[in-house]
Structures are given as C-alpha cells and as structure tokens.
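Researcher: Batch entry, complex prediction.
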Amino acid sequence: MVASLLKRDLARFLPGTASGGTMLPLLFFLAVAMLYPFAIGPNPTLLAATGGGVIWVAALLAAILPLDRLLASDMHEGFFDQWALRGISEEVVVAVRLLAHWLSFGPFIMLAALPASALVGIDGETLRIVELGLLAGTPGLAAIGIIIAAITVGLRSGGAALSGLLVIPLAVPLLIFGAGALSTGGDGGLALTAAISLLLVAIAPFAGGAAIRAAREG
Amino acid sequence: MEPFRLAASDLACRRGDRLLFARLSLSLENGEALQVAGANGIGKSSLMRILAGLARPFEGTVERSGMIGLLDERPALDNDQPLGKALSFWTRLDGEAPPMTQLGLAGLEDVPVRYLSTGQRKRAALARLIGQQASIWLLDEPLNGLDVDAVKLCEELVRRHCDAGGIAVIASHQPFNLKHMHTLSLAEFAL
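Model: Structure tokens for the complex:
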C-alpha cells in the first residue's frame, strides 16, 4: 500500500514527470541565483559574502511553489475520502507525501545549488556548508510545507498565496541555523538545523493528518 | 454469506446554522437496497457522507459492518493520467481489476482522464467501485451524466450486487429501477 501511494506521488511530483509545472521550483531557484548578481553588481567580495544566504532564501522560496498542488487537489477530487473508506489513515498518506515531496525537491535543489554557487560566486568551502545545510534543512522545509498545505486544504481560493505566507515565519529557525552556519563556520548550526528538521518531520504526519480530517468533517 | 449491516438511528444533520433533517433511522441487511429521494439541497449527499463515516452526524449513530464503497460526483482518478493507469492505482490498493469491457471502457485505457466525457468518467468511477469489492455501496446520484444504456447497466450492476448479498443505498432524484427496493423520502425528516 505504501509502495502504491509512493509510486503515484512520485509520478506526480518528480521534476519532469507527467503533470506540468514540476520543473518550475528548480527553474525558479536558478532564476533567483541568476538575478542576484545583476541586482547587487559585480563585486566579488560582496557576492561571495552574501551568496550562500541567497541560495538559502532561494531554496526556501522554491519550496513554497508546489504547496498548492501538494494536498488540495487530492482533497477536492475525493482521493482522501476513498482512502479513508479503505482504512488508509491520513497520517500514512501525509507521511508518504512528505517523503515524495522532499525527494522531488530536496536532492534537486542540492544539485541546482552547484550551478547556483557559480552564479553567485561562492568558494568551495562555503558551498560545502551550503550543501550540508540544505541536506539538513530541506526535510524540515518539506515538513513545514506539508503541514501548511494540510491546514489550508479546505480553502477554495487564495490557498496558494496564504500557505506561502504562513510557511515563511515557520521556516525562520531553519534559516537562522542553516544559513547562520555559513558565518560561524561551525557544525553547531548544521546540527541544530538537522534537529529542527527531524522534529518537524516527526510532527508533520500527525499534524497534517489531523488537519485533513478536520477539513473533511467540518 | 457474511452478514453485512448498515443501520442508522436518530440521525440529525446540521449544515452551518441549519438543521437539514432529524430523527432519521434506517436499517439495511444483506441484499437490501434503499433509494433516498428528495429535492436538491435537502441533504442527500450529507446523509451519504454521514453513512459512509466521512462526516459526523449532528446527532445519532451509524453502525456499519462491511466495507463501504462510495460513488459520488468526484471519480477520484488522476486527471492527467491515462484512464488505465489511473484505475490501476486503485487496482493495486484493492487487488481486483475492474471489468472494463462490461462498462464500455475498453479502448479508453490510453485516454487521459481529463479528456473523458461526464458519462465516461462516471463509468470509470463505477469501475473503481466494482474493483473495490465493497459490501455496502453508497451511490450519490449515480445516474447523473449517464446515457440510457449506461443507466440500465448501472441498475443491472446494483441488482447483481444486491443478489450477491450486498447492500446498496442510492441517493437520487431520478427514478432508479430495482425490484424490492425500499424508498426513503428525505422530505419527511426535513425540518
């Protein structure tokens, strides 16, 4: 059952698969990294000092883009009802969806961070910390995204913009420790990022499942 | 034959500030079918969702023994997938492949679900329902969008389901031809 759910989710969310729009978060991420030097100007010191942070902000914004497709369409098209009738709990569906959501943007953002690092001109050591930070932080970003998507699942209109707005404050701790590791250079920030991520990943299926049930019975 | 049962006692349903119906009781055993009749907006769909356990009644209890199969206006099939793939997702969960030819869906396996007509979507939803092999069928407006032949087919499927010992509840404002079917007029319980 978990395998069937994961297979369907990956077919819908992995970049370049059937439904359009799956590549957009990645392109958006690269576009932000490309625009940044134009806006700041060609000052190598300034770019190298701020580039890692920009990659983090771009990753956060790219994680917001797929939120409206994450759960709402399954709710409106009756999938959650059919799963409930078959005794498949919302928690299982949300946990599988969280995994699929992360797989379809986390590793790809980390890959895209390579060309992005060249665009914003950061050095190898900074890139290493950015990549480790993204590895530790993107599961948490995915978890925040799925919780917010579940909470806004019943909204007919304006859900996309509202969920984006709600994700940003919740993502601040991840950003502080993940991007903060760049300036301190220590592993402490990365460890804290990973800890916050793990906590969010552990909470997400239960918070998301409860939100979906509330939306259905309401 | 396993004993299946669907019973509700003293149901009341509230939508917003309005009580739609109250003091509604019903009891169905193996092989029985019930048509819930009533005008638009009287609460047929709400009753079906309460019977399915997807919505909580304002008052009263529902007792079910047997798996519930629900057919409503949403087919729960992926719009951008070909019909064959969209149905095979449910086949993998339910374990039974639906009879495509019998439902007039043969040859449509490669057509994306979003290109199907209303009637074809309904047939596809029926295919999903049959594949589920549920013992209690809750059909919410099953005849909407179906042509004359498909209406007969749908009635025939429900008849066979009941002959095999299943329970069926049909919410419809259209006549549904089925022998020995009980009728429940929701207007009698409206407030």
